Amino acid sequence: SLALTEYFVVSFLTANLNWNGLGMAHYWDQLNEHAFGNFRNLLEAMTLNPAMGAWLNTRGNLKEDPATGRVPDENYAREVMQLFTIGLVRMNRDGSVQKDANGQPLPTFTQDDVTNLARVFTGYDYWDDGRRFIAPLTNNDRTFPEYTRRAMVFDAGKHSNREVRVLGSTIPAGSDGRERLTKALDILFQHPNVGPFFARQMIQRLVSSNPSPDYVARVAAIPEIEELNIGH
Questions:
Q1: Are 9 and 198 a contacting pair, CB within 8 Å?
Q2: Are 56 and 76 in contact (CB under 8 A)?
Q3: Average pLDDT over residues 80-96
Q4: H or E segment at 28?
Q5: Which helix (H) or strand (E) holds 82?
Q6: CA angle at residue 26 from 24 to 30, to 5 degrees?
Q7: Which helix (H) or strand (E) holds 142?
Q8: Half-sphere exposure (CA, 13 Å, Cβ side) for 8?
């Protein structure tokens, strides 16, 4: 779980949850819950985690508005690819970099991928049952902290239903917003970079700072990274 905090990074100082301590405790609980499970489930839990939503702007992310020129925030779309799943350059199973005919690294995604993927992460916000109370010392109106322990919820009216083309796959326009999120995370999870990208970083945090390509390949070969078995 400690290693995962250095991978799925959030910040206490900028969580902006009002109940930051409880929000960070839930984040830690989720890392413990998924630490030895399926990476796909961990990825979805972190995507909808309220502390992550505050940190990378998924929380309150709105669909495009042609009248004002507003477009979906791209922060999480970029970071979920760059930091959490596939990285910046294409990799072989052993973590070595794939290069073009000129010896330059092959990028994993483009700005168009980021712009398209950002549409998927619109329409999400904190769970809210409407309850409030008056804080006795400050006399401020406060929400109860339960939302810090629940996945962010979806509002179809704030979601961009435009077609999404990302990493060579297409998510049709007008499809159900929650299914669009599932499809997008599946696309990322099934990318061949996920195994070596994630495995190498976990090995570095838990076993060896400079793992051999063979070691990375052995861990990355675990089917769909179902078990995070990083040890020798």
A1: no
A2: yes
A3: 97
A4: helix 20-34
A5: helix 75-82
A6: 115
A7: strand 141-143
A8: 25
123-163 tens-digit pLDDT: 999 998 877 767 677 767 667 888 889 999 999 999 999 99
Q: Collapsing DSSP states into helix, strand and coil, what is residue 77? A: helix
The tokens for 129 are: 């049952």
Of the candidates 188, 225, 223, 228, the one whose C-alpha atom is nearest the C-alpha of residue 205 is 228
How far, in whole angstroms, is CA 190 from its chain's centroid?
A: 14
The structure tokens listed for 189 are 């999870």
Segment (H or E) for 125: strand 124-125
> Which tokens is 145 given?
């902290």
- Rounded to whole angstroms, the Cα distance separating 142 from 44 reads 28
Q: For 181, what's the count of Cα atoms within 13 Å in the CB-facing half-sphere? A: 22
Q: Is 205 helix (H, G, I), strand (E, B) or coil?
A: helix
Interior angle at CA 22, CA 226 and CA 145, nearest 5: 115
Q: Cα-atom radius of gyration of the chain, to the nearest Å?
A: 19
Instruction: Name the token pair of 110.
Output: 């483009």
- Phi, psi angle pair for 138, to nearest 5°: -105, -15
For residue 140, with 0-12 CB atoms within 10 Å meaning exposed, 13-18 middle and 19 or more buried, which class applies? Answer: exposed
Q: pTM for this structure?
A: 0.90
The position carrying tokens 């042609």 is 66
Q: Give the position of tokens 């930051």.
A: 20
Q: What residues form DSSP beta bridges with 164? A: 171
